[in-house]
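User: Can you write out an input/output pair for a complex, sequences first and structure second?

Assistant: Here is one pair. Inputs:
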Amino acid sequence: MLYPITATHYLVLGAAMLAIGTIGVLARRNIVVILMAIELILNAVNINLIAFSRHLGQVHGQVFAIFVITVAVAEAAVGLGILIALFRNRETVQADEINLLKW
Amino acid sequence: MWVDAFFFYLFAAITLTGAVLTITRRNAVHSAMSLILSLIGVAGLFLLQRAELLFAVQIVLYVGGIMVLFLFVIMLVNLDQAARMRQFSRQWWLALACVLAILAEIVYVLGRGSRVFQFAPPAPPAQGGNVEQVADVLFKQYLVPFELASILLLAAIVGSVIMARKRV
Amino acid sequence: MNFLELIWLIPLFPLAGAVLMLLIGRRLDPQGPSDVAVAPGVAPEGTPAAPAHHASHHGRRSRALISLLCPGTVLISLIFSIGAVAQLASLPERTWQVIKFTWVAGLPFFTQSGAPARFTADWGFLLDPLSSVMILVVTLVGFIIHVYSVGYMGHEGGYYRFFGYMNLFVFFMLMLVLANNYVLMFVGWEGVGLCSYLLIGFYFHKKSAADAGKKAFVVNRIGDAGFILGMLLMFSVFGSVRFLDVNAALSSGRFAAETTGFGVLSAMALLLFLGATGKSAQFPLYVWLPDAMEGPTPVSALIHAATMVTAGVYMVARSHHLFRLTPEASAVVLAIGAFTAILSASIALVQNDIKRVLAYSTVSQLGYMFMACGVGAYWVAIFHLYTHAFFKALLFLGSGSVIHALGGEQDMRRMGGLKDKIPITYWTMVVGALAISGIPGFAGFFSKDEILWQIYSSPQGSRVIYAVALLTAGMTAFYMWRLIFMTFHGAPRIDAHTLAHVHESPRVMTVPLVALAAGSVLAGWIGVPKLWSFLPDSFRLFEHWLAPAVSAAAHVHVAEHAHEAATEWLLMAISVAVALAGIAVARHLYVTRPERAAALRQAAGPLYTVLANKWYVDEIYDFLFVNGLGKGGGSALARFDSRIVDGGVNGAGWITRLTSALSIWWDTWIVDGAVRLTAFLVKAASFPVRLLHTGSVQAYALVIVLGATVVFAWYLMR
């Protein structure tokens, strides 16, 4: 099972990365770390895409992965911009201190 | 073949280690460094799968671009005080439970369908290298999404500039 | 000119006069009504001198117009009537019907026998021998009385009003007698009742006059209720109310004579007779007639002697087919007529007001007419009606002349010794008194005697009733001559001032008296009894003229056999003797030995009191009906009004409050409650959801992941 390496291994790895990234998003208070965890999730997706690309013998997965990276870049840039604006206003980067929309 | 497996496990370990460290470090810079490590590991996995372009893109863009940005922002935002405070939110246990549940579900699915995910015999390398293949598909079939992606990047640039601007 | 075609015009001439009086009368005669009937013929005291002088000078010219116009219209009606009757006489079948248009449109219904009919009444006129007699009497006597009134009412206020009402009365009376159906007759019936009310209450400022008018109208109304019911019953049985139709149905033999018991026809007859009782002042509805003397004397003469009160007799004669088929009802008519005759004669014996005596005399004579109807001798009733019109009108006008001469005095105890001072009045009244007493040769003798003979000899008559009628005749002679003697003979009991002013009435008043006196003498000679076979048949014109109208068969008993002829002669002699006896007793008591009258009064004592108080009938009615219904009814109605009517209103208010309280409750708790419930439900439902709004983005993310887990798991389970 451990050997030879099949797509399943990559998928499991992708799943693990997803899990770790999700925990990071949900459990960490620091917004920067949250953004980094989001990057982890995106990378997990990329891993899956490449695995399938290899498995199906096509390059479409890789093209898709390029787009995912593009989106990740855009999202990271904008997210960090928001973080900076938020820090300027609230003087804090802790996620649960930004709760003005509370009931 | 054992080389394959060996490198896979190596890069997988690097990736996972980096990931776990990312989310557990108190110091934000340490987290960023760990993430870089994880991304490099992912790049290695890409290379293993004969995705050379993506390997390069991953290194250059992700690590060289995004992580640098992250580091700049970390330095811009003074996180010393944040480092001294509680790191994990109050809902971490619930999050852990959920994620473990998801993980279990996914693994179960994968386990059930593992027959399907056999690697096909590797396809003969097509004419040209990986880069040519990707370029070929990218600029022929996926031209419109490509252009749209460029617009997206434009929006992101503009947006981030505006968001980060100092209020006049 | 074809007068027959124009009979519908006959009532319209006096109507024109009345309408003109209504429209321009006030302008012609601006003098207001007299406050009090101080003295008819004498200017009322209350009017200030100067304006009255000016007004009367101006008014006299306009009054002349009224004086010409109103009697003139009646004269034209008289001429048309004479013409029409003359032309009727030349027709083989003496019936002429003119229908102008259908007045009441028809509603279809089913009669008692199941035949379909329509509820119609026409504006139609029927001239046959019966109505021809009536129109001649009404217009002739009416005209004479109008002329007399010119002089009598000359100084009165409200001159135009008087003549307007009189003309209106003549119009309605002519409508009554000329109508060809019961409904139109009822119009005239009601109309003459109205005019009677208006004229009785002519001096409306006087309370007694106003009350008398009211009494007349109300008592009349009771009778009218019977008339209407009878008429409606007639509709339901025959399907029509036209005289010719009803009479044809009755004489066709489809309806059996109701010899035993009371059936539908008897009910009809009695209801109609109830109406006649009210109008013609029979017991128990006679009480209005004596009080009606509050009106001016010409009114009493025309309405309450000659014409209106005879409407009941006319109506019964018109319905003779009906009464012939219901002997029980006819017996009731006879009994009531007799009872009324003797009752009112007894009251007249002791009355002191000259007009009251004449009023009770009228009631009594009407009783005679109904007695004649009761035994089936309808032509005799009409004959007596016709002669009575002459001498009763004469007596009333004569008494008016006396009152005028004495400046308003009406109490006979303060009269006397007037026969040389007002000779024309005296001699005409003597003629009238002779006529009413039944002295041979005068009009009243022929008619009254014929009635007595019919009562005696007819199979429907009875000896007892004859005795009553005979006794009444004697009483009639007595009280009439008592009136004459007290008024004209003996020493004057008048005060000096009035005595000095006693004067004969002007010619416009005395000429009518003479005319009526002539009528009282001559009128009877067209109805001489068959017994007087020495006179040719042309002297029996009246009976022959009326025969086709009122005789169904030879029901009138004629003295055919020899011994019956002897009986008739005997009875005739007895009645004359009784009359002469009455006159003699009166003379004895009031001329020769006046003190015997006072002594007799003492001796009679309680009987005298009872008679003088009119048998307390008015008091009994007051107690039973006026107070009972009035006060009791009034208080009952007041209680009804306050409890039931006001209670209804209050109840409605209470119900409104109740419903509004319910509405409020509903609105507050149900409607508002629904709204508030909605709000509460939203709040309650949103409360747990609200908890999710932590404001923390991580929490939202957690929820998303949670949701994804659940969905993923669910898909796995399937």
